[in-house]
Amino acid sequence: GSAGGFTYSLTRSLETTAPQAGSAYHLVLDGLVGGHSGSDIDKPRGNAIILMAQALQAIFGADLVQLASLTSGRLDNVIPSRSEAVFVTEKSRADV
User: Fold this and answer.
1) C-beta atoms surrounding 84 within 10 Å
2) In this structure, how many other beta carbons lie within 10 angstroms of the beta carbon of residue 29?
3) pTM of the entire predicted model
4) Which letter, b or e, does each residue of 31-69 get, where b requires 16 or more Cβ atoms within 10 Å of its Cβ?
5) pLDDT tens for residues 45-72?
6) Max CA pair span of the chain
7) SS3 state at 84
8) Contacts of 52 (CB under 8 A, 6+ apart)
9) How many whole angstroms separate alpha carbon 4 and alpha carbon 16?
10) How far apart are CA 37 and CA 15, in angstroms?
11) Residue 7: strand, helix, or coil
């Protein structure tokens, strides 16, 4: 069987800004089970992209986080098991 799917491309202009004052961090979420988005979607597996976003929200709440990069997954039909975020925040390591 097949879960079906499609691929699309979205292009839009991006305005970049200089990093804010603060500390830069590299946060890695790794070791999840992952899986195929068709055959494993009904299993209780964490999605590293969603969990990374939830972790950043839980740690920083409404505080300003300037995201430099977010990478996760290598294929478009996978439940990603790893995610990496690089970001700058005014919060110090002691506050986190």
Assistant:
1) 15
2) 19
3) 0.74
4) ebebbebeeeeeeeebbbbeebeeebeeebeeeebeeee
5) 889 999 999 998 888 877 778 888 999 9
6) 52
7) strand
8) 27, 29, 70, 72, 83, 85
9) 36
10) 33
11) coil
